[in-house]
Amino acid sequence: MRVSARTDYAVRVLIELAAADSRPVTCEAIAESQQIPYRFLKAVVRDLRVAGLVRSQRGCEGGYWIGREAAEIALADVVRAVDGELLTVNDVPPADVAYPAPAAGLGLFWLALGARVEDLFGAVSIADLLNQTAHAALGAPALRT
């Protein structure tokens, strides 16, 4: 599985906004803090805004805020907002993949994998990542630092 730069950047934007509480944050500040190219960041933030995951206000007091509670935004929501489907096989959703015999079982595998990916990405929220508790949301032991 490959996580795109768009997804990586979008998650980092949302963590940054969640950490800012109720104050607006500019794209310039996020780009600098997270070391994300500004022009690329603007496109990612636009997609997040369209999906309702961030909200914005123009002007000198403007910037971006997280659009919902961080605990209500699952990684699955973020991926769909910036990249579409969580898992595709040759750009086709697993439910639409079919193979002739004897490879028919491969389509079932992709379908099962898609369900697992959905479960994993749906179980972790922006709040989990901000609070460094994503491992607990997945039922995994804590990482040693």
From TrEMBL:
Q: Which Gene3D superfamilies match?
A: Winged helix-like DNA-binding domain superfamily/Winged helix DNA-binding domain
Report which superkingdom the organism of origin falls in: Bacteria
InterPro entries, per database record: TR_Rrf2-type_CS (IPR030489), Tscrpt_reg_Rrf2 (IPR000944), WH-like_DNA-bd_sf (IPR036388), WH_DNA-bd_sf (IPR036390)
Q: Which Pfam families match?
A: Rrf2
Q: Sorted alphabetically, which keywords does the UniProt record give?
A: DNA-binding
Cellular component GO terms, alphabetical? cytosol
Q: Which residues cross the membrane?
A: none
Q: Give GO terms: molecular function aspect only.
A: DNA binding; DNA-binding transcription factor activity
Say if the entry is tagged with keyword Hydrolase. no
Q: Is Transmembrane set as a keyword in this record?
A: no
The record's section on PANTHER family has: HTH-TYPE TRANSCRIPTIONAL REGULATOR ISCR, WINGED HELIX-TURN-HELIX TRANSCRIPTIONAL REGULATOR, RRF2 FAMILY
Name listed for the protein in its UniProt record? Transcriptional regulator, BadM/Rrf2 family
